[in-house]
Specification:
413 residues, alpha/beta, 4-stranded mixed beta sheet, 14 helices, 14 strands, globular, binds pyridoxal-5'-phosphate
């Protein structure tokens, strides 16, 4: 028995995965050529698995802001926000995010993961109850582990089940805190926020919504699904990340809570880690300005997502429930998913392989993420390749319209 023998099953699973071709957890891009293209294994590939929803990683204004900030303020802050790690730009970014959401205050964190960890573990105390959607992201589950509160899971997107579980708590002391998401990261389905907000109003609770995948991709102002569904005033805390639509790294929480500032000296994942480096803060401020001033970014990612989703659904793929910037293809089994993902990469299309236990309902998924930066031609190419691989592996059952060799000619040289 060695220290790591507890991971023997994990090792065996990884070996089985790698035997299918590549290790999906060890993909190494030799060059990132743009928001939508890279070089992998010596060949160009199209990026359809990056969460770069608005393509801002290569935006000129974001890069310029990042460069000028690193030149002016150095490479890192070397300290926590409550010590030496608060610069003028951290405060400015918090003001900009709060204004973007029309909320009183914001706190920024070093990652989106830490934003969930920090907020949830701090506001949910020993006598409180956390009611979380069963399909919540790992950062929400980990936040629950860090919190002293009672943890109650409700069925995915089921406001009725939430109401039932809240009802059982009647008469018990403590605050009820509901946590759910704007768009769920595996199947790309939206949170049932109208129904959940209704339950919150009727039964009395605090509501936290993680808009990690919906900031920039949903809502006319790009504020996410809460904006889109008209429930922003019911939400007590919006959590989000800078690592997807904003093309950088970091996380945030916005709220109208009057005592919000108190969290800065109570929230351990905020206090006991170094603050975001200046270059990141600079680029995020620029990215937020881009989103605020250019509605076409959101419109484009929605148009591109709709195109890919509808075409794949029409071909016969089992897709997620609605077209969002995450388009998931449900594979018949784990082995087919692994082969599918490898064949796509062979043909120059990078997607995410998502397997149980990280997926809802033990599904094996090919998870595509779509960007505003994808050109029509890139979507057409990816589509043709995905469909051809679907036919080759028997996931789609009718005759091929194009062979894989013909389709491969579309990949950029
Ligand atoms: C719903 C959700 N919340 C939080 C996070 C964590 O964000 P980050 O990767 O920026 O730490 C993710 C990351 O994928 C996510 O999907």
């Amino acid at each position: 028995m060695t220290l790591l023998s507890k991971f023997d099953d994990l090792r065996a699973a990884l070996q089985a995965l790698a035997a299918g071709g590549r290790n999906p957890f060890d993909v190494r891009f030799e060059k990132i050529s743009s928001a939508t293209e890279a070089v992998l294994e010596g060949r160009p590939c199209l990026l359809f698995g990056t969460n770069n929803y608005l393509g801002l990683t290569f935006d000129e204004s974001c890069i310029a802001a990042s460069v000028s900030t690193v030149l002016a303020e150095g490479t890192g802050t070397t300290g926590s926000r409550i010590a030496n790690g608060t610069y003028g730009d951290h405060v400015l970014l918090e003001r900009r995010i709060a204004d973007f959401y029309g909320k009183r205050a914001a706190m920024i964190f070093t990652t989106g993961y830490q934003a969930n960890l920090g907020l949830i573990s701090t506001v949910a105390g020993r006598d409180d109850q956390l009611l979380i959607d069963a399909d919540s992201h790992a950062s929400i589950y980990d936040a629950c582990k860090l919190s002293a509160a009672e943890i109650i899971r409700f069925r995915h997107n089921d406001a009725g089940d939430l109401a039932k579980r809240l009802g059982r708590l009647e008469g018990r002391p403590g605050n009820r805190i509901i946590v759910t998401e704007g768009i769920f990261s595996m199947l790309g389905d939206s949170g049932a926020l109208r129904e959940i907000a209704h339950v919150k109003r009727e039964m009395g609770a605090t509501l936290i919504v993680d808009e990690a995948h919906s900031l920039g991709t949903r809502g006319t102002r790009g504020r996410g699904v809460c904006e889109d569904l008209g429930v922003e005033s019911d939400v007590d805390f919006v959590v989000g990340t800078f690592s997807k639509s904003l093309g950088a790294i970091g996380g945030f929480v916005v709220s109208d809570l009057p005592d919000f500032e108190l969290l800065r000296i109570a929230c351990r994942p905020y206090m006991f880690t170094a603050s975001l480096p200046p270059a990141v803060v600079g680029s995020v401020i620029a990215a937020l300005s881009r989103i605020s001033s250019d509605a076409s970014l959101g419109e484009r990612v929605r148009r591109n997502s709709g195109k890919l989703y509808r075409a794949l659904a029409q071909e016969g793929f089992a897709v997620g429930p609605e077209p969002n910037a995450i388009v998931a293809l449900k594979m018949p089994d784990r082995e087919t998913a692994v082969r599918f993902w490898n064949r796509l990469l062979d043909q120059g299309v990078y997607t995410n392989l998502a397997l149980p236990p990280a997926t809802p309902g033990s599904l094996s998924l090919i998870r595509c993420s779509i960007s505003a930066a994808h050109a029509e031609a890139q979507i057409e190419t990816a589509l043709a390749i995905i469909i051809a691989v679907g036919r080759e592996l028997g996931v789609l059952d009718s005759e091929p319209k194009e062979t894989l060799a013909q389709v491969a000619e579309h990949v950029p040289a």
